[in-house]
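Homework help board

Subject: predicted structure for assignment chain

Our instructor gave us this sequence and asked us to write out the predicted structure in C-alpha cell form, then describe one feature. I got the C-alpha cells but I'm not sure how to describe them. Can anyone check?
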Amino acid sequence: VARSNKVGLSTVYCLQHLYRETGTVQQKAVIVGRPRSLDALDVAFLESCIQRTPDIYLEELQEELQEAQDVFISRTAILRAL
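My C-alpha cell output:
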C-alpha cells in the first residue's frame, strides 16, 4: 500500500491507527488563535444599526453595542468584524 501510494510506511501505520481509533482517516480540525469577541448576533446587530443610520460613527456603534448587547469591544474590533 505504501509503495503504490508513494507514501512512507509510517504514514500507512499512522493512518491505520487513526482509522481504528476514530473510524475515519480525517484528523480533527485544530482551532488556533483567540476566540472571536463578537458572535453572529452582535455582528447582525451592528449591521442593522448601520442600515438604520448609514453615517454612524464607530464610537456610536461601540456605545450602541454596549447598551443593547452589554458587550464592550474596541472600535478596531468592530471595524474588523464589519
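Reply (TA_rk): Your C-alpha cells look well-formed. For the description, you could write something like this. Residues 34 and 70 are 20 Å apart (CA to CA). That's the kind of observation they're looking for.
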